[in-house]
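Q: Here's a chain of 278 amino acids. Please give me its 3D structure as tokens.
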Amino acid sequence: MAPSRILAPLCMALCSLIASHALAYEPPRTAGGKVNFSGVWQVLNTANDSLEAQPGRAAQVLRDGPAVPVPVRDLVALGATGAIPPSIGVVEGDVIPYRTSALAQREQNRANWITADPEVRCYLPGIPRANYMPHPFKIVHNDDSLFFNYAYAGAVRNVALTDPGPAPLDSWMGQSWTRWEGDTLVIETTGFNDRTWFDRSGNYHSDKLKVIERFTRTSDHTIDYSATIEDADLFTRPWTIRMPLYRRVGRDEIMLQFNCVEYVEEMMYGHLRKEPLD
């Protein structure tokens, strides 16, 4: 019997089993009956390197070499620790739909990553980037509050439970409020400044950015997460990223703060010493 005649029914049975399990899953709920998203969560992907798929390469920024591209001078000493692993990407449709005029700025950002990425200086990451950095974040959720606490740079989000209207001022993390679509938690965020990036590959936005996130619990340990990006100044249409979030358990269900501000002081202010270090 041909292998395909054996594997096809087996795959159909397995898919049916997975689908029935997903439909049967009953998530934890708050006292008021809403799905409860409390926990410490983290991604297991490299979206922070690049939202789009990319091949592996020797460094974030390369220069021409005698045979193949090589790391720029400032990154050579990092060796394998500065190399970029390949990734399949998280953008639905694979390509971010930049306007032609905006794509040139993305390429300039990418070439100047060492000095231009806000993450290098430990600035607040913005939304949605805070959710897929290589650091955990904690959601505290009940019927009266929804709060995100990120390990990176002490970033936080206090999500309003009703629409507060326009943000009073632009900020790094924006202003967020929530609503529900069945058991899916929807968070809309606006009121951003234009100083955060989406990843280390120079993907960026303007202060017209609007982010619509959807969180759906698919098991006790996973959330189906998506974020739709709207910014008519830079993109020809709204576009969406999607990825699973994983719950940390056991001894890992603890979140240590990564207070990177103090770690970049020498880089940002060392030249102001009376006698700068070598």
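Q: Can you summarize the key feature?
A: The CA atoms of residues 110 and 201 lie 5 Å apart.
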